[in-house]
Structures are given as structure tokens and as C-alpha cells.
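How a chain folds remains the central question behind the approach discussed here. The record that follows shows the chain in one-letter code together with its fold in C-alpha cell form:
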Amino acid sequence: MVSDTYRRYASAAVAATSCIENCNESAIIQELGEALHLGDAAIHRRKAGQVLDPAFTLLIARMGVRRGMLTQLWLETFLRAGNYADHEALVAELFPDLAPAPPGRQVLANLPAPSYSRFTMRPRQYDAIAQALHRHGMVVILGAGGMGKSSLALEVARHCLNGASPEAGAAPPTFDSAIWVSDRTASGRLSLSAVLDTVVRVLGAPQLTSRSLDARRSLVDQLLRQRRVLLVADNLETVTDDDLLAWLAAVPEPSKVIVTTRSLDLAFLEGASLVAVGAMSEQESQHLLRQRLEELQLELFEPETTAALLNAAGGNPKALNLLLGQLRLGRLHDTALRNVLSPSGELLTELFDRAWALLDADAREVFLATTLFYAVPERRDLAAVAGLSPERLEAALATLFGLSLLDQQHEVGPVHRPDARRIGMHALARHYAEGRLRELPAVRQALQARWFAWCVSFAREHGGFVLHDVARLTVLEAAEPDLDAALTLAAAQGRHHDLIALARGLEFLYYVTAEWDKKIRLHERYIEAARLAGATSEEIYVLALHIQLLSRQGRPQQVAAELARLVELATPLQADPTTFFTLHHTSGLYALASGDLVTAQHCWQCIRDRAPDLPHDMLHAALHWTGRVLQLQEEHQTARAAYEEACALAQTHGLARFEARNLLRLAELDISEGQYATAWQRMDACRAKTSSNDAELQAWIHLVSARLCAAKEYGVSLVIHLRYAIQLFRRMDMQREWQSAEAWLRALGASID
């Protein structure tokens, strides 16, 4: 006999599934019995906790989470109550760390990691923003530099996403998505086009970036009307694009906008709520002072010193941090306290000047190098651009952190390496450092050269066709803004070989994350660079990638000229196994997209005939796509044999992604033959082997899961899987797939969103 908790939690899973899928509990009991080959009475005994059966526990756990939409807390409690042996592995399977948001409320956001370890609450301003968001379409946070506008906006946005609020504060409205754009590093270059592109990427429709500006604006407005999106536009005082300012002021409900700015622009006042963020109160200043003293490992000051510090800072958080940093370093250098506490003229400018004077050569190099990064760098990246050893970098960072010239970003997830914490820079510090860098052209030139070299090296080290570990692309993804900027610079300067290295590093990232619009534009630059460099093998490679991608999108007619060029270049070089495979595999995908299944099958058979000369991943591709052609011709038994052979080959060589896509196609065949239990098992194995950032495979997983739910008449789960599949196929602009899924959804009488 197991605990009463087990009985109640098992009953909850059955009841939740029954309610959501609008079916009788007796039907679920019968289904469980069929899966375990037991009668209804035996299932009822297990459900009542009279018999402890691990197989029953596993079925109930998966059903409760996947179909009953129960929480991780329910799962963990249920498994402990049932003494389930490997409960941690099952929790990880059903609630992976980076899985999509639970069905029913999908959270899409790109909020930056906070630069502060603890947020100093500004209750009056926070409440004013929270209340204004309920009543107005736009909230403008106005304040001088260093007053904490960005931190306040970030904290509000995070609470808007998770539905939380401070213990004694007003609760802001809840949003499904939060999108952050900033002119902090763009320095006046943030445009309407860039903001619209960010919106569609975060909302999962990057294919829209290829549309005209007017078309994008109209389509984004439609998205913002359909969803509750909070758009945060940070550091907008330097923006010069009037179209962007006008569009922000007219963002349609129910979506809303938060703007942070140092200058009051009358264009924002019409229909907007203005929240001024001025000096901190004495209580808030005292709270921040205590926090920073603790972080800097300084003892509390005498009351006279504390009063002098707070008076000098004037309620400005950034000024207080700078003062404390200088005081700390001043003590180490035996600097008189009065010199730190007697600022004259422009407070922040003088504080930065004083801080600069306290820096040694290494610290100055690191401070200036940080301004070159488009993304937020990690320690080792910053060391490479600053030209310092890890030991010298740490010494420089200790000084810069202490002086509050740089910030250590606090990651949301676990940090697996000591050097992985990213180094942030306040907008005011960046502005000051950029001014200093302009005064030092030789230093700037040397830093930019090292930054560009770092970008090329980083792309080579972390990018490319990483079949064995797709999850590692998250490292590359974090640096993508820098690599993209370096690629643009390489194109402008005619550095063809460097552009090729950068493009090779990025193209598989764009493929896996389904940013196929960016991948297509990357191909165009890559093809041109390969031609200009006379790099025939590179031109063959990228032409193949380009043809394959547009063929997957169902647009082979757009790459007929590229295919002719590929045949011209590759045919004389077919003695090389890689070139031979590239030519025939690409031709096969082109023929498949064109509806010529006979030619497609012949292309992959040619590859299989040359199997002894080819690497295992090439043979796998030929087997898999042979299976796909046979499946489309409804030759299921021969298709199954091809998929099983490809799956075994992938498993032997540790190619998890390849193994997953064969399991998925085998599950499709199982469904067509009514082998639903086997299909469930294959889909579970497929999910376990698929990285959460692998958007293409995730799209197919949701579509096949929808077919399985349809076969088993799981109505609500069917709709949820279809919606996810539509969103992902739209991102890849695979029109045939997402339009077919939309038609299916409409036939069910369900809405698309």
C-alpha cells in the first residue's frame, strides 16, 4: 500500500486529463489498461494506491504533465509518494531547463540579464509605472543619467512576464511577451527597421524581415494587436529616427510601451504617462549604500562620512557607486577622503575623470575594449580583445568593478565556467569610454584589429556544422551580434577569406535556430565572397546550402540558376567524395521540392552506391532521404527499412540529431499503421535527443505529435501541438507545412493563436 498522497495525485492526473480533453474518466482508465495489458479493475487498484507499479506511475506522470498540464511540483510530489526509482531523470525529461513555456501561455522575451545582484526598490516610481501601464499605452521614464531608469524598467518588465510584484507594491499588468530594444550601444543608429526586425524575431516570425518597411510595420501592428506584448525602448534620448518615435507612440493595444530617456521629447507626451525618476530618498540611498558596502567588503562608515557621501552623490545611484569605488581605491592608495567627497562642476563627468585617473594601463585597456562589443562579452573574450592574460584581466576587472566602471552581469541560469559571467557597461560609462577612445586613435585601431581577429577566431572555434553537440551553439548565439557586425565589416573592406570564416561559423546556427531569413542573406554575401576570392570549394559548399534551404522552403524555382552553377563547378570534381555528395544530395533535395521523386531517389541511390568512399554522416543523409521519398510514395516497408538503417548508423556514431529525425519519421509510419504505443515511445526518445534550440526538429516533433493526438482523439493537446508547429514553420517560411497545419486547425474550429 502506498501513501494517500499517491492516490490523490494519481486521481488528479486522470481528472485533469479528462477535463482538458473533454472525455470520460472511464475512457482514460480503459486507455491505461490497454497500454499495460490490464483490466479496468487492476487499473483502479493501482490508481487507488493499493498496488505499487512503476510502469503505471510512469504512464500517469507523463499523462498528468503532457495532457493534464499539471505542474512540476505535482510531478515531484507524485513520484516521491510512489517511490519512483529514477524520478530526477523523469522530471528532467518532462520539464527540461530550456523547454518552451507550458502550453496555454507561451512566454517570448529577450530581456537582458540584470547588471545588479540585488535591486534597490524605488517604491513610489515603481508603483507609478505599474499603475500607468494599466491605464496608458505608453509610459515614459524620464530622468538624468545614472538615476536607475533602465534597472527600474527591467524590473517592471520581469514582473510583467511572471505575474509577480513587490510585497508592498502595485501589481503591473501581465504580458505574454517582453521585448527589449536599446540605443545604448547603437549610439543614434537604432531605427524603426531594426526594432521591427527585433519584434518579429522574438515573436517567432523572422521570415517577415524580408518584407518592405511598410509591410513589416503593418504586419507587426497586427501581431501587437493579437498578443499582449510589452515593448521596452531603453536609452532613447540618442535616437534620431523620427519614424521610430512616431511608431512607438502609436503601438496598438493590448500591447504597450515603456520608454527610458534622459531628455523630454514632446512627441511622447500625447497619450503617454510620464514618470520622473529623480534623486533617491535618504532611505533608498542608505539602503543602496549598505548593499554596496557589503559587496565591496567595506565596513560601515561613521555617520559624518556617510552623510558626506550621500550629500556628494545627490541621490544619484551611479554617482554613489562611483564615489564608493573611488573611496575604496583611494583608501588603498591612501588618498584623502576629502578629495573624493568634494566634486565640483558636472558631477558625473568629474567622477569619471577621477576614476580614469586611478586606472593603470591594463584597466584602461579593458575599459576601452568593452566598448567595442555589440553583445555583452565574457571574461575570456574581453581578455583577447584587450590583449591581456587571464591573470592581468582579473586584476584590471577588480579595479573596474570596484570603481563601478564595469558591471558583472548576473545570469538567470547556472554558470558552468568561472569565466562565463559576462561583463556589462552602464550607458554613461560607455559614453565616457567612447569619448576617451576617440582621443586615442592608435589605441582604437589596435583594439578594433584584435576585436575583428577575435570574431573570426570565435566563429571558427564555436561555429560550423556541430552535429555531435547542437546545444553548444548557445555559446555562438550569445556572440552573434558581434560576428554579424564583423561580417559586415569584412564585406565592406573586401576581406573575403575572413568573411568566409565568419559565414561558415554562423550558417548552421541560423539553420538550427530557424533564422532562415538571415541565413539566406548570409548565403548571398558568402557566395559573392567565394567567387571574388576564387575559392571554388567554398562556392560549391555555399551554393549547395542555398539551394537546399530554398528547396526545403518549397521554392526550388528561385534557385534554378544556382543549381546550374553548382553543376558546372562540381561535375569536374566528383572524384572528391565531399564534392560528389554535395552535388547529388543538393540535386536530390531540389528534385524532391520540384515533385520529381524518381530523380530524387536516383540522386540518393548514387550516394549509397558509393558508400565505401563516404563518411558516415553522408551515407546517413542518403539513407534518411531515400526513406523520405519512399514514404511519400507510400512504400512504407522499404521506407521503414531505410530509416532504421539510418537510425542505427546515427546511433553508432553518436549523431543524436540524426537519430532523432529518423525516430520521428518512424513514429509517423507507426501512426499510419495504428501502432500508437510504439509511436509514443519513439516520440519520447526523439524529444530526449533533440536540443531545445533546434527549431526545425522541434517543429516536426510538434506536427507529428499532433498527428498522434489526432489518432488518439486528444483534442486539446492536438490544438496545442498544431499551434506550436505553425509558429515554428512560419519562422522558417516553410509555407506548405504551416499553411497545411493552419487549414487543419481551422477544420477543427480552433483559432490560430
